[in-house]
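Example 3.2
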Amino acid sequence: MAGRYDAVFFDVGNTLLYAYPSVGHVCEEVLLASGRIHSLEEIDGILPLVDEYYEDRYRTDDTFWTSDERAADVWTGMYVLLCRRLGIPESAASTLAHAVYDAFGDAARWRAYDDVAPAFERLRASGVKVGIISNWDTRLEGILDGLGLGVLIDTIVSSAVVGLHKPDPRIFELACERLDVRPERCVHVGDHIYSDVLGARAAGLRPVLIDRHGVGLTAEDVPCLLTLDDLEEALR
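Structure, written as tokens:
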């Protein structure tokens, strides 16, 4: 690895971290704390619609990731929709939606996949730098630190902090500049073809997909992993 690459950058959501115990569980707990009892099954049944709301906003204008305020507006909009579908009065929906959004700013609501820290340690031991390039709000660094990953990361480039978002090649170029590495000697690992593969390619980095849920992600001439345990082998 060290002979061919100087740095490996990673996306975060569904690449390094997952909501703990799950998005539905967190929503259930927040609602219960306000005295509203809704089953996990009921909440999980609505979440695909919530995800569709996000994807629609993302397709319409993904620049919301460059601003904390605009990103928060999208995410609270998702949970307002959830509250409405649960029959929660409009007067309470906004407050509850903000409470769910706030909950996901806490590192305790996230977990790193088991293969993440070992992969970071292997890369650093071989002389390869580790970086983060993520469409995320300004809470990302605190979350990664809270999970004990910060000490294994050489730079964290969060879209809301730098005012750039994937797939804009400038956010990849900025990450390379921070580590003083050339894009052509770098890899970017992520789970999204549009933001991760197209963005990395446009900036000159080698893209690698990771398919944590086995949904069959594919892109031409792009290795696809199920686990970071296979990263080095895929890049040989």
